[in-house]
Automatic annotation (TrEMBL):
Protein's name in the database: Dipeptidase
UniProt cross-references to Gene3D superfamilies, sorted A to Z: Metal-dependent hydrolases
A Pfam family assignment: Peptidase_M19
InterPro entries xrefs: Metal_Hydrolase (IPR032466), Pept_M19 (IPR008257)
Species whose genome carries this gene: Litchfieldia luteola
């Protein structure tokens, strides 16, 4: 009975501002534990009840293949996570609708929530373009090229070699462009980042922060942030405590520091959020799960105008999505 999904309609409440969250690992957590229900679970940072109560408008669901999965099984695991998305997430409520682009989101009714599939790292496709094309046909709207280490596309940020895009990696970026797919630079090597900036039509960093504020290699330095802004890409401030503060613990005020810094570099219209909820075990004080967005919104409204906060939370990502 625990595996079944039931239709629910939960009364709306929470924040009055719409939210676009560009990264979560809900599918990974549900893949690890098939007994978890997306409807309402204390085991999930993001669940249907939390999305509805906190006024979510678009939630991205990443396909993340852990390093422990054998290479020859990774595409199968990606398909298993997509099956979870279509069998255990989308059917949970008539409020949830698959979205792939801006037009899909703009077509949502006021009480509907868009669910978007993304790929976190191309490990699942190996060096096989047909596998990427298959994932795109199944609904993937954003492709992260690496996790932290090397694959056939590029090196990740923790790979000592630090190589950029391979020949196959250039083909992947071209394929993304051809199908109006976002290319995600979170986790990629520094050289790979610059290769993407040069060749991608829709570059984003779905869940990365400012290196100037927190010296974690997963964060972007000022030159990288300025370059994403210059090509009209998006930067999703993430809630990973280790990416927010060198202390290793973080509060909402630490999130605000990264927002302030990116805005100071000219990123007011290129900034959003990518929580990484359900991909983290440690959380920000006051942002323990999706409901914590309310506290973040209240803090942002103390320092920014409401129209700016609306852009950070939703409109910037919407405006940068392919039509």
């Amino acid at each position: 009975m625990a595996n079944r999904c039931f239709y629910v309609l939960i009364s709306e409440g929470g924040s009055r501002l719409k939210i676009f969250d560009a990264h979560s690992d809900v599918l990974y957590k549900m893949w690890l534990d098939p007994s978890i229900s997306f409807v309402s679970s204390d085991h999930l940072h993001i669940s249907l009840d939390k999305l509805i109560n906190t006024n979510s408008k678009v939630q991205c669901f990443a396909i993340y293949i852990p390093e422990t999965v054998k290479h020859e099984q990774r595409f199968d695991v990606a398909l298993e996570m997509i099956q979870i998305f279509y069998a255990k997430v989308i059917p949970c409520s008539p409020k949830l609708k698959l979205v792939r682009n801006r037009s899909d989101i703009e077509a949502l009714s006021d009480d509907e929530i868009g669910a978007m599939l993304t790929l976190e790292g191309c490990d699942a496709i190996g060096a096989n373009m047909v596998k990427l094309q298959t994932l795109i046909r199944l609904g993937v709207a954003s492709v992260g090229l690496t996790w932290n280490y090397a694959n056939a596309v590029a090196d990740g940020i923790l790979e000592g070699r630090g190589a950029g895009l391979s020949s196959f990696g250039h083909e992947v970026v071209h394929e993304n462009n051809k199908h109006f797919i976002m290319t995600d630079v979170s986790h990629i090597s520094i050289k790979g980042f610059w290769d993407v900036i040069e060749h991608a039509d829709y570059p984003i960093a779905s869940h990365s922060n400012a290196f100037a504020i927190c010296k974690n290699p997963r964060n972007l330095d000022d030159e990288q942030i300025r370059s994403l802004i210059s090509v009209d890409g998006m930067i999703g401030v993430t809630f990973v405590p280790q990416f927010l503060s060198d202390k290793g613990t973080a509060t909402i005020s630490d999130v605000l520091k990264h927002v302030d810094h990116i805005c100071g570099l000219g990123g007011e219209y290129n900034l959003g959020f990518g929580s990484d909820f359900d991909g983290i075990t440690q959380t920000v004080n006051g942002l323990e799960n999706y409901n914590g967005y309310e506290g973040l919104i209240n803090t942002l409204l103390k320092y920014y105008k409401e129209n700016q906060v609306k852009r950070f939370l939703f409109e910037n990502y919407l405006n940068h999505l392919p039509i």
